[in-house]
Amino acid sequence: MSIEEMAAILGWCTVVNFCLLLLSMIVLMFFKNPVQAIHAKMSGLSTDDLNRLYFQYMGRFKTLWIVFNLTPYLVIRIFILGPVAS
Questions:
Q1: In angstroms, what is the C-alpha Rg of the chain?
Q2: What is the pLDDT of residues 27-55, one digit of tens each?
Q3: Disulfide: which of 7, 22, 31, 59 matches 76 by Cβ 3.0-4.6 Å?
Q4: Contact yes or no for 7/73 (Cβ under 8 A)
Q5: If you write DSSP's letter for every residue of the chain in order, what string do you get?
Q6: Could you give the CA distance from residue 19 to residue 25 in angstroms, rounded to a whole number?
């Protein structure tokens, strides 16, 4: 696998994972009550516990996205291949 192919794969992983993060944020912002009702029935947790878990999930997902997708892509793109030509 060439470095260009690796950069392309990491680039698409970054885009897909960012879209999942954005979708999660939108669902939790606009459909919080129905989602909480479903999760409360499934897990037996209170809404306060679910709010804390949602916040932790979003924070961890964002941190992992930055560490494992965005940072390696930017390192390959900037330091190895050079800046994107326009």
A1: 17
A2: 999 999 999 999 999 999 999 999 999 99
A3: 7
A4: yes
A5: --HHHHHHHHHHHHHHHHHHHHHHHHHHHHSHHHHHHHHHHHH---HHHHHHHHHHHHHHHHHHHIIIIIHHHHHIIIIIS-SPP-
A6: 10
